Amino acid sequence: MFHVLSRFKISTKLVTAALGGTFFVAIMIASQVAGNASIERGLGSALDQQEIARLAIAAKAEARQMQVAVRDLRLAKTETEIGAAEERLAAGRRAADQLCDDMRGRAASTESKARIAGLQQAIDAYAAGAKRIADIRLRIAGEGAAGRSAWIATMEAEAADLARNVPCRSRRRSTGRRTES
Fold this sequence. Notes:
rod-shaped, disordered C terminus, mainly alpha
């Protein structure tokens, strides 16, 4: 091996060693750039998932606002109180819809998109049920002035039944476990 190298001049050997070193440094830099790009993509994906989780928590808070608005709607006696509760309900729905749109834009997996679609359907179903309750409450408020108490009692029962049966994803599900108090 040394016999082969002895045929070359020292300058040729030095140039060859320098070019080899430069080549290896270039390979290390390219490896670093590729690794950094991969890490950046992973970090971006993790940040998107974190933002989706934050938006989901905010959407749940808006769903709670919608529930409070339905409670206010059920307790309302006058048309102005009913109108105010409907406005709060509509504001909660708009905010929840906007949050779902933001989540949908950030979601990458089909599983996340399916969950967001399910959340949107639950919000729509809850808003539709709340709209029916509002219509009943408006009829009750109108009939209350006319003095039709038997009909009002029937409508109150229907509104209460609707409120119990309106689908809501944020209600706690039974886990079958008992908690010690």
